[in-house]
Specification:
Elements: H1 15-18, H2 23-34, H3 36-53, E1 61-65, H4 71-78, E2 82-87, H5 90-103, E3 108-111, E4 124-129, H6 139-149, E5 150-158, H7 165-177, H8 190-199, E6 202-211, H9 215-221, H10 224-236, H11 239-243, E7 245-253
Helix pairs in contact: 2-3
Length: 257
């Protein structure tokens, strides 16, 4: 079962909680992330990666951790999965429920913390968590919880240390240290992620790398044609495989069918 020690819980004032508890931010979340030509490209790519990494969803149980406004959860539900979405922000979940009702899709949405999931061990066929580990106070605890509740697969993503995006992350961390209100996300070494998965009996089966150049740069340019052209050329040169970020991973439990 999940840990319930209040002393081990992360601080509610951490930006990853405070920002998404703001109703105004929750209301414009999808517009900020998925609007415009690059936002649309990101949404389409995210959906395709989920479909590729979680085939044969009909009847499968899936937990979407850090579901936010429910975009990923509803995609999986439309493909036949029995989906539960959890998020620490009631404001984000309110939008997720409204979206589900509007789209006529059945999914359950509950308040919950990624560090302490209120579900028994191996209670879902798969656990998904996108754009979460980079922000959480304790990413190892969150990854351990994903592995604990997943019977077969976990799918998650992270910004890579070996990427141009790592420079942006470093800049944000410096700004945060000087008092700026910014999302000072972390970046990850692939070996560190793999080692943590191995501790919980999981191994990486596939990866998807998004861009060589930072998403923020592509959004600033605002041209899907330029982004696909430039990133396609970099991929053909082998640079995407080396420096692409964010990285989406599917890992399976050793011995799972």
């Amino acid at each position: 079962m999940s840990s319930s020690d209040p002393a081990s819980r992360p601080p509610a004032e951490h930006y990853s909680y405070a920002v998404y508890a703001d109703p105004a931010h929750a209301g414009r979340f999808d517009q900020l992330r998925f609007s415009g030509p690059i936002g649309t490209l990101l949404a389409e790519t995210q959906e395709q990666v989920l479909v590729d990494f979680l085939p044969g969803l009909e009847g499968s149980t899936v937990l979407d951790v850090g579901t936010g406004t429910g975009r990923g959860a509803l995609l999986l539900a439309r493909r036949g999965a029995v989906v539960t979405g959890v998020d620490a922000s009631p404001q984000m979940l309110e939008i997720a429920r409204e979206r589900a009702q509007r789209e006529g899709v059945t999914a359950r949405f509950d308040v919950g913390d990624a560090h302490h999931l209120a579900f028994p061990d191996r209670s879902f066929d798969a656990a998904v968590s996108l754009r979460v580990l980079m922000h959480t106070p304790d990413w190892r605890q969150c990854l351990a919880e994903l592995c604990r509740v997943a019977r077969e697969k976990v799918v998650f993503d992270y910004p890579a240390l070996a990427s141009v995006a790592a420079l942006q992350a470093a800049g944000r961390r410096v700004a945060a240290a000087f008092g700026s209100r910014t999302e000072a996300y972390r970046v990850f070494r692939a070996r560190g992620v793999e080692a943590e998965l191995a501790r919980h009996g999981f191994a990486v089966r596939a990866r998807h790398r998004q861009f060589v150049f930072p998403i923020a740069l592509h959004k600033a340019i605002g041209s899907r044609r330029v982004t696909t052209g430039v990133e396609g050329a970099l991929s053909r040169l082998g640079l995407l495989r080396l420096f692409g970020s964010p990285v989406t991973v599917v890992a399976t439990r050793e011995g799972a069918r």
